[in-house]
Amino acid sequence: MKTRCWKYRLLTSLSLAAALLLRAHPAPSLPSTGGDFPLSLQTPGKVPERIILGFVSDPARSLAVTWRTSLAVETPRAEIAPAGPTADFQKDARSVPAATSKLDLAKGANAYHYRAIFEGLSPETTYAYRVGDGAVWSEWSHFRTASAASKPFRFLALGDAQDGLKSLWSRAVRGAYAHAPDARFILSVGDITSDGWDDARWSEFAYALGFIGTTMPFLATPGNHDLHRPPTDPEKGTVVGVQPTWRAHLTAPGNGPKGFETLRDTVWSLDYQGVRFLSLEANVYAEENFSESVKKLLYDAQPAWLEEQLKNNPNRWTVVIMHNPLYMVAKAVDFEELRKVFLPIFDRYHVDLVLAGHNHRYGRTPKLAGGRIVDPKAPGTVYTIMTSGPKTHVKNPQFDDLMAVTLDASQMYQVVDVGPDRLRYESWDVVGTLVDSFELRKDGAGRTEYASPGRPAAGK
Ligand SMILES: [Fe+2]
Known about the structure:
Layout: H1 2-24, E1 49-54, E2 63-69, E3 77-82, E4 94-104, E5 110-118, E6 126-132, E7 141-144, E8 153-158, H2 165-179, E9 186-188, H3 199-209, H4 212-215, E10 218-220, H5 244-249, E11 268-272, E12 275-280, H6 283-286, H7 292-311, E13 317-322, H8 336-348, E14 353-356, E15 362-369, E16 372-373, E17 381-385, E18 405-407, E19 412-419, E20 422-429, E21 434-442, E22 448-451
Parallel strand pairs: 8-9, 9-10, 12-13, 13-14, 14-17
Antiparallel strand pairs: 1-2, 2-5, 3-4, 3-6, 4-5, 6-7, 8-19, 11-12, 15-16, 15-17, 15-18, 19-20, 20-21, 21-22
């Protein structure tokens, strides 16, 4: 017993001495062995963060990932391999170099953003990937490529986030993920933050999104707030095109009208397992202060591009996303110009579903054509106006007669299931109540039939 006490005292003394020595001489930065150290021991500022997946072109064979560090790294790269149940999958990993962009955060601070593009992937395959610089790595995350053919899948759709991103929007995006972790991607109709230029807002967005962005691609069309430039910018409010912050975090297919580099993140087309998704720049038709030259260019180019996309569409379904809706349910505002430009095109090509936001309230029409409710079996389009953040606006009853459902500003998310013959849309609030749903059934000739459970319109 005496011997044990003596040994115990000696060990305690040695431990205390070591602790004092370490305090006086902090440990030098440790060489990394590939991300196995606890985060607290990794080199500060070089740990990848804000990791977000996005689509570039063919979702069956390619995908992009963006991330950032607060200190520049010399050899930014990703590694990717088909995922396997044991850790052995790592031996098949290949390295993919990443492009770097520097973001000026003002007051002398910078962030370094990276984008790696995975190409040559196999359809319907689960991959594991990580990002880093060869020494400090992220954890391995999984994603699954799309099928090259038309095949049932589900996606999540979110209305404006905009405010309270960390404190409140988090429950919408996390609720959506928890509800449908098998959804293939998240689609946002814009106003992701209240000030697109401000990295502090993007930090909240990335915090709320968390690991979801590492495994589920995030795809968005920009809203008016996403175009906001710093208050000192002389072009503030007159030009379209997202801010560098948007491009640093998100990826878009970039296949819009030729010659419009500023719109590469805004106007795009993506085919996913039998659905053509089309993103439109709608802000310019709704806001007064864009320059006339910008308006003229867009008025000529965008409808022509849209028609091409709809005319040559081999997919069974077409879904349009745009920030501003054709029919407002909040504020005393009417975007007549949007209807003038797009309604005839949506009608002519029988666009199935148009997802929009901007209202900070919820509204959803039955099938419409020519600005009127039509028979469930007649050609037509369903329009939705979604919201996911906490902000609210007062009700606008102008289009109540066209709405199947209008709701207040509950925070919500949408789950959409699409197969060759059926599209089912559900809207859920963040405490788990199904607040709206409908289905479109499609026959062999491409004709749809609209069906709704007949929920009475609320809030009228
Ligand atoms: Fe908006």
